[in-house]
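PROTOCOL LOG
Step 1. Enter all chains and additional molecules of the complex.
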Amino acid sequence: MKIRGYGQYCPVAKTAAVVSGRWTLLILRDFVLRGTRRYNELKRGNPLIPPSVLAQRLKSLEYAKIIARERSAHGNTWEYHLTEAGEELRPLIEAAGHWGQRWLGSTLTRNDVTPSVLMWDIKRKLRCNELPPDRTVICVEFTDLKRMRFWWLVVEEGNADICMENPGHDVDITIYADLLSLTQVFLGSMSISRALSEGKVRTSGRRELTKSISRWFGVSMFADDNPLNRTG
Amino acid sequence: MKIRGYGQYCPVAKTAAVVSGRWTLLILRDFVLRGTRRYNELKRGNPLIPPSVLAQRLKSLEYAKIIARERSAHGNTWEYHLTEAGEELRPLIEAAGHWGQRWLGSTLTRNDVTPSVLMWDIKRKLRCNELPPDRTVICVEFTDLKRMRFWWLVVEEGNADICMENPGHDVDITIYADLLSLTQVFLGSMSISRALSEGKVRTSGRRELTKSISRWFGVSMFADDNPLNRTG
DNA sequence: CAGTATCCGATGCGATACTG
DNA sequence: CAGTATCGCATCGGATACTG
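Step 2. Run joint prediction.
Step 3. Record the structure below.
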């Protein structure tokens, strides 16, 4: 486990030696912004990372004392968590996100979107307390997909679960959208109300859930950095 | 000129695709923090970068609209400058520097230090207005070096020049130090007064310049992030 | 001064398969 | 679930030499 540096004393260079390998910043993002703790969660959040690379990066980050690996609460599996040093990478990660949204947000293409990643992001940002107190079932149908077309979010007691098969309960609201449009909504480059009025997103089901959708449908933490949202 | 992305819509991933190549963050540091504008300045600040890699990175950054290349004022050479997008990378670079100083500052070794880079950093941070209004000549002698042992800073009219040969003027103050110690002083991991009292750094010449040294000898912008300086 | 040209070697990386 | 093992290719990166 050797870290290849740059032969420079500059603190920026020291940091760069640790965080600038391929995939590394994304793994850190998962820890810092998504609260990820497990190997397979990291795979889910980064579908294209080779498992060997992920394993190697985790070892490096552990070696650098940015994360630590330990038994989970139940003791039957492993978990990673940020150290204090790792926590303090938050400003760096957030700066990267703000900048990317502001200056590269318009580069979004079909190659950048994956239904599973989007659905987990949506789930994570769902404002459950803005939904009815009893169980709510939200169905998402990606109108342009064959596989991975249907997703269900079951919200109960302030907690959301993701299913890929019909969970059997009555569906309270269905959201129809193509994958790219719903991603744009999540990223804040298109407001959900505009998406609805333009027909990019449609809904069916209980009317009051559609009316309140912009309250319970949370968006990316970088949504406000979108150039469209600039006040200046 | 293709940028290899990660197949993710996340703004952090978009940024990572642009800035996380080897040397890239350091080149950006030179633009953002050192005010570098020229190819050879970049080489000076990054002695180990291969010229072909530097050229490729500059092209990439230009392609990404982070820097722009244009004729210098005199028109006989080329200069780079940050675009607005590039300027806004400052928070990212500074976050990297703060973190590196705080968590990796103690990893400094002999392999990380270069006299030329240090001298240019010192020159850049010299507080000329704290020096006498007339010409001041500062000699730095790296006591552990054979080559690159002597350096002169000629400060005149609020401006400092670096020489590697005796400029001929009388020397007002000479600073003797080994390369690692003076680097530590610059980085703030050792205060100059402590370095003097411990004999890591010595001076000769005009007494008033030694007495005021902690005023005119500027340090790294990350010096305060050193764990030693923590108040908490 | 500001880069190209060339070349080679390491290794990072990706793909796939497999395991306790 | 949480990774290893293997493997081969590509390409990145480093060194050196050279040029308008």
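Step 4. Note key features.
Residues 90-104 of chain B form the longest helix (15 residues).
The first strand of chain B starts at residue 67 and ends at 71.
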